[in-house]
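Hi C.,

You asked whether I'd gotten around to modeling the 110-residue construct. I have! Everything is below, sequence then structure, no commentary in between.
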Amino acid sequence: AGPKPGAPATVTPLRLPLSAQALREQSEQLRAACGQPGGDYRGVSRKLHDALIAPAAKLLAGKTHVVIVPDSAMPPLPFQALLDAQGKHLVERWPVSYAPSVTALLAMRD
């Protein structure tokens, strides 16, 4: 995301510190917990935040919007529900959008 509305977006690919299996399992746990009234999603949400968002903290500093471009190996994941160390959801810090690919993201900007 760009530093301010209308500014050029930057695209930075990040390698995930989780194995594909661990990511799939934790994503399924989070979706299941979020789908149940009163489901306790906080623990797995925090783990996923630490693995997926925390490594990008320096890149996200000063940004106004986060666009997630998952690759084909990424299971469906409600990124908005990820919790940081202060107990804030990702969506409380930034608006979150999704794009199906970097190519599509760049085409949407034109």
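If it helps when you're writing up: The chain has a mean pLDDT of 86.

Thanks,
B.
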